[in-house]
């Protein structure tokens, strides 16, 4: 199978920088027309033999050799917790599957938005006044000439508390996925793009160097609105490059939880832009919530699911007199408990005791959680001893590690 893949250089950063602060003409004037032309002509095309991994209804096939994203590794650096990293990436796949079915499309890590571009997008905007007051060295040193920043300008404000109120950092990370379609002869064409915007629910700041980190909770409706505005700007930048005019693009807005929360944030909205379209008509709401179980918050969504988990904990405590409680992380979709992850902490005494408890938990899973995907880990602080999984209405499976 032959597949032509595009290797993007620094030219793309300039081509996609259709920002308010500096247009292409301004950039050309600052850097020199010849520099821009040389960069644009430096896009390379390579042709190589590639194969695909085997197909699966649940997961996408991928191209071998595997292509890494030029922005690889930034999710763990930019998001505030591992819970958010996992949910952001898994949830974005789930959204993609509804637009780009796994039996029709092949996954590839995003190749358009580079690490440099993401860092630029996450920075603050520069106002026209700020740009006018910069000399050429300041413009080049700060990358202000491209003005890629999507987070709001501080407008010269330096007080961290005022900034937290008036110009907080909304955008935390951008994740891109590419989707390829295979024709009858096994040739792949690049057809689709999914872009996730991870937004902050809390603005973290310090009032003095090395001082205590302060928190300012953000209004979630405002955060969602800002994310959708940023998605529209990213669309404009992508469509500015002729290579991506005919690609279907999906945008999804994710609001991450705080750095001390033990449940991740949630995707709140999505939009699909047809090939050739240059605007986002509207975003549709996503009714998915990640909630701790048992909790008052879970009870507000589904009293039945919360009570069932309480019953599960009650039955679980009958196995050990000293057992306290388990921690459940539930994903509610349209008000129904769709999936559940449970951690059961134990103090390991003997293998026989651990096996017996694992079998007991497997039976409880079958008894209490019908029509819900469940994964249970039985573990201590350093080791997982067994895992119980169940898909939908099927019977639970038990895996005990040697």
From TrEMBL:
Keyword line: Signal
Xref: InterPro entries: CamS
Signal peptide: 1-22
Pfam families, sorted: CamS (PF07537)
Protein name as it appears in the record: Protein involved in sex pheromone biosynthesis
Annotated organism of origin: Jeotgalicoccus coquinae
Phylogenetic lineage: Bacteria, Bacillati, Bacillota, Bacilli, Bacillales
């Amino acid at each position: 199978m032959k597949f032509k893949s595009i290797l993007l250089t620094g030219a793309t950063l300039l081509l996609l920088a259709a920002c308010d602060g500096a247009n292409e003409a301004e950039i050309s004037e600052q850097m020199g027309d010849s520099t821009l032309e040389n960069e644009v002509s430096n896009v390379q095309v390579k042709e190589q033999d590639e194969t695909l991994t085997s197909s699966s209804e649940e997961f996408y096939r991928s191209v071998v050799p595997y292509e890494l994203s030029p922005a690889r590794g930034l999710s763990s650096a930019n998001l505030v917790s591992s819970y958010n990293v996992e949910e952001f990436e898994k949830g974005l796949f789930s959204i993609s599957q509804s637009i780009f079915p796994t039996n029709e499309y092949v996954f590839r890590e995003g190749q358009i938005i580079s690490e440099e571009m993401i860092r630029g997008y996450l920075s603050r905007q520069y106002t026209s006044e700020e740009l006018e007051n910069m000399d050429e060295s300041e413009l080049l040193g700060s990358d202000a000439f491209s003005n890629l920043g999507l987070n709001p300008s501080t407008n010269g404000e330096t007080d961290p508390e005022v900034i937290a109120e008036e110009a907080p950092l909304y955008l935390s990370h951008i994740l891109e996925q590419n989707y390829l379609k295979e024709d009858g002869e096994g040739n792949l064409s690049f057809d689709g793009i999914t872009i996730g915007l991870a937004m902050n629910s809390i603005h973290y700041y310090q009032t003095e160097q090395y001082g205590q980190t302060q928190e300012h909770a953000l209004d979630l409706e405002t955060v969602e609105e800002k994310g959708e505005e940023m998605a529209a700007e990213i669309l404009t930048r992508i469509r500015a490059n002729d290579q991506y005019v005919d690609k279907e693009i999906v945008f999804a807005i994710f609001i991450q939880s705080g750095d001390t929360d033990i449940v991740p944030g949630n995707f709140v909205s999505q939009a699909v832009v047809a090939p050739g379209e240059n605007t986002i008509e509207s975003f549709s709401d996503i009714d998915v919530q990640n909630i701790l179980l048992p909790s008052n918050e879970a009870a507000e969504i589904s009293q039945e699911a919360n009570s069932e988990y309480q019953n599960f904990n009650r039955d679980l405590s009958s196995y050990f007199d000293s057992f306290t409680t388990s921690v459940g992380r539930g994903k509610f979709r349209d008000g129904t408990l769709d999936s559940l992850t449970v951690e059961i902490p134990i103090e390991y005494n003997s293998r026989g005791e651990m096996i017996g408890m694992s079998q007991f938990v497997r039976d409880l899973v079958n008894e209490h959680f019908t029509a819900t995907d469940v994964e249970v880990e039985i573990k201590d602080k350093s080791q997982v001893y067994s895992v119980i999984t169940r898909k939908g209405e099927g019977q639970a499976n038990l895996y005990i590690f040697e």
